[in-house]
Structures are given as C-alpha cells and as structure tokens.
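Dear colleagues,

I hope this message finds you well. In preparation for our joint manuscript, I am sending the 23S rRNA (Guanosine-2'-O-)-methyltransferase RlmB (Lactococcus lactis) sequence together with its predicted structure, so that both groups work from identical material. I would be grateful if you could confirm receipt.
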Amino acid sequence: MEIISSKDNKKIKEARKLLTKKYRKNSYLIEGFHLLEEALKAGRSIKQIFVEENKLTKLTEMIGSEKLLTDLSVNLVSKEVLKSLADSESPQGLIAEVTKIEEVIDFSAAKFLLLENVQDPGNVGTMIRTADAAGFSAVILLGETADIYSPKVMRSMQGSNFHLPLVRMAKEDCFAQLKKAGISILTTTLSANSVSYKIINEPHFALIMGNEGAGVSDEAVKAADKLVHIDMPGQAESLNVAVAAGILMFSL
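The corresponding structure tokens are as follows:
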C-alpha cells in the first residue's frame, strides 16, 4: 500500500476541508482509535480512514484484517500528512471520515437535554457526554449552539454522539413537540420565580441549559413549565454551564 506523503494530495485536500463547518454537509472527521471503535460499534458508515504506517498493525488488530480489506477504505499517510488532518496538538495517528445520518427524536421517551445557544465546543461536548452517562433519551440543539461535528466537540463527546440521538431543531418546533407529548419543560434560570432543583419530581422532562454568558432566552422562559436553579451557599455568582448541567442531570 502506497504511503501518501504530500499534504497537497487531492484526497488529503478534500478531507482537510471537513475541518471547516461549511464543508461538513454529508460527512465529518473523527480522530483516534477510540472514536473509530465507537463508530463501528454503532454501525456507522466509514467512508475512509487515514492512518500512519506505524499504526496500521494496531488498526488491523482492532477491527480484523478481513474487515480492513473488504469493508474499509484505508489510506496510509505520513506523520506530517496525518497532522494536517488533525485538530488536536498530539494526534493519535488515525483520522476517519464518517457519513452523517438523519437522526430522529422519539418524543415518547423520558428525559431530554436541550442546549440553547451554548457556544463553547468543550461545554457542548461535555454536556452531551454527561447526558449519555446519566441515561438521557436524546439531546436537542437549539439556536446558535456549537456544531456537534466540529473536531473539538467530537473530542469532548468521546463517542457519546454514537450512543444517543443528537438533533438540531427550531425552538418553536421543539417546544411545541414537547408540550404535545406532555413533557415538562424545565428552564434553568436564577430569576426570582425559579425554584430549587431539589424539589422537582418529574418523570418526563426536558432540561434547557442556556448560553454561557446570557443564559436562556425569553422564549425558553415562556415555554417553561417550571423555572429551576441550583442553590449556591458560597460566594460565586454562577457555575460553569457544563458543571451545572451535570449536577442537574444526575439529580433530576
């Protein structure tokens, strides 16, 4: 198998475009063996794999030589070429291109996390990973929430995107669907009308987490069945949104 050693190789240049949001219409990149393994377990379609020559044995051991030869398009690349496709400072020697799928929300499920205008990729990925760990049914992305297919969000999710549906929806449609399904909307806010999360007892709910600086929107407040907050006996004015989401998801 020939090793691609030029960053100007046509296949490499096309794949590198996927580091930019506007080109991620049909596929996206994942980085590292763990994410590839999670994608394969979830039955996702892998368009192609780029792997450093010294990592090919590890790849073969992970997925088997027969599958490697018959089902996957594998490209051997130099370390420099691999790094040009990676977003992290220390790439693990493997990049894969994954085909996007159309995910749907089952509104008869019990627990939903709604991320509204959450812009930091690390926060978005961490909250999705936590929702996965806490047994949530789905995550719905609203407004200007960061692109889940960006490399930084992908690293933060650590494969949780392959475990539960992640769907971007218009706020109005989302709130209407939740109300139609009889799901209680819990909006996080420090307003005078909010109550402590400790007194909430809702078997079916959608938890809305808002923007890091501005919080939730007026639409999210109006849509709420209950406004909730976390009691803070200390002197800090607020919590990091991902930390707050973790507390609420496991407690509720």
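For the figure legend, we might mention the following. The CA atoms of residues 14 and 143 lie 29 Å apart. Residues 3-99 form a domain with the 60s Ribosomal Protein L30; Chain: A; fold (CATH 3.30.1330.30).

With kind regards,
E.M.
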